[in-house]
């Protein structure tokens, strides 16, 4: 081989090595900026989680109700419920007016049959009706009653 051919091959190898080094440097710089931005995003303060309010429940003492008869048979419902409210004002109002709350519940339940109350759908409909009945005003200066759910703690039909 001649000297010019050897010099040409060396320059090709040098050019190839130079290209590999430039590509490696470019990759390293790209990774630095990518990881550097992620590191800064992770270091930024995370938004504070919103505080979830504690649930407020108003317990209604269990009671027994005679159900409406379909075929001259006596049926009883033993029921205990808790009312879920959104604020303490609603809780205090319901506790203060508990005798009227119980009276409205008794009146509502005595109009039901055992067959209506035995199905899950019947219980859901009853929950909606209880909320509707209790949202009707009980006093002249009544705050807005923030009643959100009816929870059955005891439910026996005989």
Automatic annotation (TrEMBL):
Membrane topology qualifier: Single-pass membrane protein
Subcellular location: Cell inner membrane; Cell membrane
Keywords attached to this entry: Cell inner membrane, Cell membrane, Cell projection, Chemotaxis, Cilium, Flagellar rotation, Flagellum, Membrane, Transmembrane, Transmembrane helix
Pfam families listed in its UniProt record: FliL (PF03748)
Function, in words: Controls the rotational direction of flagella during chemotaxis.
Family to which this protein belongs: Belongs to the FliL family.
Descriptive protein name: Flagellar protein FliL
Organism per entry: Azotobacter bryophylli
